[in-house]
Here is the input.
Amino acid sequence: MEAVQEILRAICECAQPDSSRHEAKLKSRVKDRLARYKYPRTIASPPALRKTATGKFNVFKLG
Here is the structure.
């Protein structure tokens, strides 16, 4: 039987350009509040998240 592993990834849009500091702050806050198996292992912050015409995030194009 083959083992299946899923890795959580958080994608967030930071308001300020210094995203590395905010990513570390976000990661430590999430680690404090969630169980070890629930917090995301990687955090990506693209320059701008794509939205649909209704203003929702386009989940299929997040990558």
Summary: The first strand starts at residue 9 and ends at 11.
